[in-house]
Amino acid sequence: MKVHFFRAVGFLALAVSLTCAAQEKRMVIIDQDAAGPAGSDQQAMLMMIQSPQVDVLGITVVTGDMWLKEELAHTLRMLELIGRTDIPVYAGAEYPLVRRKAETELWEQRYGSYVWLGAWTPKYYHAPDSLGEMPEGLPSTKPAAEDAAHFMVRMVRQHPNQVTIYEGGPMTNLALALAIEPNFAGLAKELVFMGGSLNPQTEDPEFRSNPRHEFNLWFDPEAAHVVLHSPWKKMVCTTVDISLKTQLTKKLLDEIKTGTSPAAQYIGTYGHLFGQYNYLWDELTAAAWIDPTLITKTERRYMDVNLDRGAGYGDTLNWSEEDRPKIELQSVEIQVDLDLQKFYKMFVDSLKAPTPPPSPLTH
Fold this sequence. Notes:
Strand order of the largest sheet: 3-2-1-4-5-6-9-7-8
Largest sheet: 9 strands, mixed
Order of helices and strands: HEHEHEHHEHHEHHHEHHHHEEEH
Shape: globular
Distance between the termini: 36 Å
Structural class: alpha/beta
Radius of gyration: 21 Å
């Protein structure tokens, strides 16, 4: 009887230990326009998956940089290659709430063209049901049966005030979650997002003529407007302005390639540079959430999106406390400057680190 008693006590202690360890992790839902293989979207997700301090409850996918179906395939395959198929993947919105490709083409004829239109970019365009190129191979796993918005709502109800929403793409899925559950923003712990362009200092043609244009907010401006007006406890924003201070280089890729972890091998095989400009947009958003000390300067702004259907449709709007309009707006913490070398080291080290085991909690 004593043996059985001590064995039971041991199992109980282990269970308590595992539960406490899981509870100490920071819970996050990754909402991403998950273009792949590799690239900013997948690399940002990997940074959070690779962190032993983070519990990724699930990955929700939305059309943005690529079409939904191919983004799902790239994400499922990435999780297979790194051995983390325990993380569920949920299909979200295939189209923005209002904006459509044909309408955007007419807009460009009148007001001028944009460099990047995501899934609608003429150079890369294909039908929504096509997967395009899959150099990493097709996934054998499938997305979860539940849709992205209902999954998000279910998680914040199950873990009130504990779940961070990480947004790396257009905000369509978040707007749908808010339509299902009006208290969604209040039930979440916080929203961290890559989006918005305030006053970038650059010769990059994507922003030189259109400094307030930023793809994530522009692609679904109505959704972004809904999300930015919702009562989140905290909103943290990585803008174009601070993202332009980062750059993925051959040296960083070569350092990652020396790693033996599945994540490092994945990036080492499929990571590459895209022309002259290779900003670490989403990676910075993820890294600064994991370790806020990377950010050395912030400021408070009020943000919205231009919904007038003219030349500025989808542009970022922002104000200080002194010049804000009289309508009700939410305050956003804007990242202004960072410890660049510390960020680069974290980026490389996280991808080279061993793959963390699955969370002992089932979500």
